[in-house]
Specification:
84 residues; 3 strands; 18% strand
């Protein structure tokens, strides 16, 4: 892990970006205190069908009307019940 101060990082940003892309860990510090870490962004270029299989649950009543939006819904505590 290499640490650079802010001024040095601004002066040599292109070189630091190349080093981070190659897998080197770069830390930028202000007054000797680490502030940020440069690391490459991993981009998954292809979608994988079914990657969330089993993690999403759709209940059988998911498309039923919400009682609050149903004109026949009666809720005694609703202050706007008589205005509709």
């Amino acid at each position: 892990m290499k640490t650079y101060n802010v001024h040095e990082a601004k002066t040599h940003l292109s070189r630091l970006l190349e080093q981070a892309e190659s897998g080197e860990e770069i830390v930028i510090a202000r007054a000797g205190r680490p502030i940020v870490r440069l690391q490459p962004v991993t981009i998954n270029s292809r979608r994988v069908p079914g990657i969330d299989r089993g993690r999403v649950i759709i209940h059988p009543d998911f498309d039923e009307p919400l009682p609050e939006l149903d004109p026949d819904y009666e809720h005694p505590d609703d202050p706007l019940r008589d205005e509709a």
